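[stage:ingest] chain + small molecule (fe (ii) ion)
[stage:ingest] validated
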Amino acid sequence: MYTQAMDTMREEGGQPALRTAEEAALQQRFDNRIDAGDFIEAKDWMPDNYRKTLLRQISQHAHSEIVGMLPEGNWITRAPTLKRKAILLAKVQDEGGHGLYLYAAAETLGQSRDQMLDSLHSGKAKYSSIFNYPTLTWADVGTIGWLVDGAAIMNQVPICRCSYAPYARAMIRICREESFHQRQGYDSLLAMMQNGTEAQKAMVQDAVNRWWWPCLMMFGPPDDQSPNSAQGMRWGIKRVSNDTLRQKFVDATVQQAQVLGVSLPDPDLRWNEATQHWDFGTIDWSEFWRVVGGEGPCNRERLAMRVAAWEEGEWVREAALAHSRKQARKEKAA
Ligand SMILES: [Fe+2]
Ligand SMILES: [Fe+2]
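[stage:predict] done
[stage:export] tokens:
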């Protein structure tokens, strides 16, 4: 999965005062390159705020990938068939890989992976609010693939054109895998809706009812309440606004829900002939801010599981380091 709302943190100010003529020239050159649509590489000069904003967004994105492994990983031992188990294992493993590409991209901006993980484990860093909701039944696994990975794709495809090249390159690979994630989720729900029992169909509908609104929140606050979005757009980090992405997601998903045979839990959802889009109801932003602020249904559980996984994995990290030291010694001796 998934990025969310680099604009949920409200600390970015404007540009810092430039100190020297040389810095002013570098800034001008950077602005020109951004305006020309050039990509910025790790070795290039960049303004401090650009670096900080990217570091925060990419590390939040990386954290979301690895925290996102938890709610679904929970179901690997309970998958209903061997085929579904193999698919889910591959998907959860992909998410771990996405975390690795993204931590590597973030490291090029000057922070170590240990520092980033420390921020996550101490509760200082954010990850996507969507992973603070519970996965109560097997239908939640399919619904996460269909809706959560679906929303993630909508969010992430424009990041393939992000002005920071290491991030853009990581996203190209990630997006290819996300589309498999979305399809496997949809396929799993379709199997239940077409061949399942009444109880299984009800289970799918219940999961969709619970995930729909949190998925709409994944695109971040409305444009008029996203003070950092404009700067993100100016820098070519953000290419499409939160509200535009959210509308695209709703438009694409309504038809998929119809084919699936589930309803979306919004009485205000209707086709608007004039705009050629689906209108939808009001999002409860107080819920979003509550979950972002640490008070979602599973915030504490997810963080505790993540920290436990880190601590239990210590011997693996130690063994890998010992192995690499041994290899280096061997190579030196040869
Ligand atoms: Fe995914
Ligand atoms: Fe992912």
